[in-house]
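Lab channel / #folding
Pinned by the channel admin:
"Please post every new chain as: sequence first, then the structure tokens as a reply. Keep commentary short and put observations after the output so the thread stays searchable."

First post following the new format, from NK:
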Amino acid sequence: MPETGSGPDRKTILIGRTICRLAATAPWAWPLVGSSVGRFFDGAASGWDDRTGAGSAEHLATLAAGLDSLGVKPERVLDLGCGTGAGTLFLAREFPVASIRGVDLSEQMIAKAQAKIGLDPDARVTFRVADASRLPFPDDSFDLVTQVNMPIFFGEIGRVLRSGGGLIVASSSGDRTPFSTPEKLVLKKLSSHGFHEVHTGTAGQGTWVSARLS
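Reply from TO:
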């Protein structure tokens, strides 16, 4: 959740990172906070792109760098926490023949994302409201999963990602990203959930982690 100007205050960062740590370490407790998170982003959807710089080169730098580290050519891509669709549409441009799915907990965010593509008779890029802790997709549905600035649900990602598939976890403002998980925790959880070929890096003001599922 990048911000322009002076950026988010310390309280916002603390709350967001606490929620992300909860999702990573105790996903069973997510229902206690998930609805509140959804309502927060519903309320924030109006003017989101202007306030946060979503879709700017700086905002997308970490996602782009993660893609470079993986070197993948996916057929089916899932963008978690897609918000207003900036990252999803970037992925659609990068992979012009891939099927791209963007999901977000917020109905208002998805409405704004959908408005950016209008009618897509081929349905190559689609958006839908979904909780990343309980994804509405079968096992082994995707060969690339991405997420920028949101909690991580490692078990669910591992379920929908095909063996050998790639994952990118990006925080566009590094440690000052409210909805981000500490990198040490990300690396520990990736190892315990069967991911390998793990790489980390920085881009712009942010950080990224990439990995492949065994």
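NK: Residues 83 and 116 are 12 Å apart (CA to CA).
TO: also worth noting, The first strand starts at residue 76 and ends at 80.
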